């Protein structure tokens, strides 16, 4: 996986303006808010409203009016008008992740990393200076399913128009300069050397190879030390021409724009891209062979990765599985895993589980580190906890608590323009309905214990686990018994 920011910091003035407008908007939208301290009358009316008055109600969240259309070149567009700040975000999501690498591992990552290294008449320094002088921010990244490019800028025409022109050059006319290609290859190769000292990364690479084999998800997004040196500028150009084509892109726009302005912006961005259709969707993987692989590594702790194939992003059981996982290991403190593995036994600093739902079936993964001499017992404990949860599901109390937590935290998913544009990109890329955000929370709140139990048992099998461990081979000890006060607390932060 790679993510590159250029430039990393926009002009300070952009944020000062945004902050001032945000503060002004907050006062205008909250006429009952207390005045400034110097002017506040010394009465009870000036006191802050008690949180107790919320009476358990979930915080309000933004109602999104998502509008959608298609450009003349075939790009899907999703737009939300947001006038609170004089800014806009545009994010393009392409089916141009490493699953499209074919036989050239790392091609998608390298193409994306090179986008802002040069355009006609400008090198990487001039591009960065151009965005910075406008108070604009460009970001890009490449992953297994997708590649992304995004722009954030002030919405006033004098900033918006030149920032958009530069953005269009970067995504539509990259020159892939030879000197930059050498530099970035060397950076990537240096990263591969560093990976050799990271047992968690080694375990992750082995896990995906075990889970997916020769499937497009099986190889690392960044390629490998054998594939990267031979990638040519001509191969980058060819990949860009097909994978960054307008028909293979979703354009998400959020901000201080009218529908007419958003349509003009999307049309301009779409026209700047190469012409071409959407690429074929990633094929579904075959079921992997269950079992354990150990990587011997001289560390104090052992990394444990426990996984199996999960679901794709459009699976109808997504809401039930997401909710069930929040109870089991996805919700931080209070989950089954954290309670039994960390809080009662002090075996780890943190233990987490999750479904990564992708274009094809992504992994369900449990991830933790523990003391090397307790790794066998910890692994068995986690497997037992998973088997018990699959067999019996959550309790009603656990499910109700998870629903309350999700109702309280879900507004954060649309709390900012950048969060909204990310949601729109996912909705468009995975062909989800425009009402997805509303539908998802309604589905979560409607789930029963039996529905969650049924979904977990349908998609997870404790006998089909692919397990990778990385750490030293040492004599094993028995696990301490569960207690409210573990004799030995977890050691600080994880090693890696």
From TrEMBL:
InterPro entries reported for this sequence: Metalloenz_LuxS/M16, MPP/UQCRC_Complex, Peptidase_M16_C
Source organism (scientific name): Phytopseudomonas seleniipraecipitans
Protein name stated in the entry: Zinc protease
Keyword Protease among record annotations: yes
Domain named Peptidase M16 C-terminal: residues: 231-405
Annotated region described as Disordered, given as residue ranges: 473-496
Domain of life, source organism: Bacteria
Gene Ontology MF terms: metal ion binding; peptidase activity
Gene3D superfamilies cross-referenced by the UniProt entry: Metalloenzyme, LuxS/M16 peptidase-like
Biological-process GO terms, alphabetical: proteolysis
Assigned keywords, A-Z: Hydrolase, Protease
């Amino acid at each position: 996986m790679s993510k590159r920011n250029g430039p990393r910091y926009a002009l300070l003035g952009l944020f000062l303006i945004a902050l001032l407008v945000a503060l002004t908007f907050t006062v205008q939208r909250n006429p009952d808010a207390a005045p400034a301290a110097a002017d506040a009358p010394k009465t009870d009316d000036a006191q802050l409203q008690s949180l107790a008055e919320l009476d358990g109600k979930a915080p309000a969240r933004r109602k999104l009016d998502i509008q959608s259309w298609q450009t003349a070149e075939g790009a899907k567009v999703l737009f939300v008008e947001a006038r609170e700040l004089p800014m806009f975000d545009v994010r393009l999501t392409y089916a141009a992740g490493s699953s499209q690498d074919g036989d050239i591992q790392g091609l998608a990552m390298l193409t994306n990393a090179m986008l802002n290294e040069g355009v006609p008449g400008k090198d990487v320094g001039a591009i960065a200076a151009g965005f910075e002088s406008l108070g604009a921010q460009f970001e890009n990244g490449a992953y297994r399913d997708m590649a992304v490019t995004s722009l954030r800028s002030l919405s006033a025409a004098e900033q918006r128009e030149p920032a958009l022109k530069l953005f269009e050059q970067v995504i539509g006319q990259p020159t892939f300069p030879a000197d930059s290609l050498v530099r970035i290859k060397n950076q990537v190769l240096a990263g591969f050397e560093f990976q050799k000292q990271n047992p968690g990364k080694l375990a992750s690479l082995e896990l995906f190879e075990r889970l997916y084999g020769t499937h497009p998800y099986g190889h690392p997004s960044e390629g490998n030390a054998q594939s990267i040196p031979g990638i040519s500028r001509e191969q980058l150009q060819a990949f860009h021409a097909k994978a960054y084509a307008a028909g293979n892109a979703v354009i998400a726009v959020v901000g201080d724009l009218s529908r007419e302005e958003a349509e003009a912006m999307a049309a301009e961005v779409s026209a700047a891209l190469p012409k071409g259709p959407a690429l074929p969707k990633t094929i579904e993987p075959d079921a992997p062979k269950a079992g354990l692989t150990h990587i011997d590594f001289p560390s104090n702790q052992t990394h444990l990765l426990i996984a199996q194939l999960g679901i794709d992003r459009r699976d109808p059981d997504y809401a039930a599985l997401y909710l069930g996982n929040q109870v089991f290991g996805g919700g931080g403190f209070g989950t089954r895993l954290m309670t039994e593995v960390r809080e009662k036994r002090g075996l780890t600093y943190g233990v987490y589980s999750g479904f990564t739902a992708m274009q094809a079936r992504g992994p369900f993964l449990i991830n933790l580190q523990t003391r090397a001499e307790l790794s066998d017992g910890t692994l068995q404990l986690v497997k037992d906890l998973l088997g018990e949860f699959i067999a019996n599901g959550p309790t009603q109390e656990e499910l109700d608590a998870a629903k309350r937590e999700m109702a309280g935290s879900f507004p954060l998913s649309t709390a900012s323009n950048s969060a909204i544009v990310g949601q729109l990109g996912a909705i468009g890329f995975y062909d989800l309905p425009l009402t997805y955000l509303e539908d998802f929370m309604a589905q979560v709140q409607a789930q029963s214990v039996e529905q969650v139990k049924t979904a977990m048992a349908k998609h997870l099998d404790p006998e089909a686990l692919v397990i990778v461990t990385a750490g030293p081979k040492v004599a094993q000890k028995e696990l301490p018994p569960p207690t409210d006060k573990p004799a030995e607390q977890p050691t600080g932060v994880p090693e890696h």
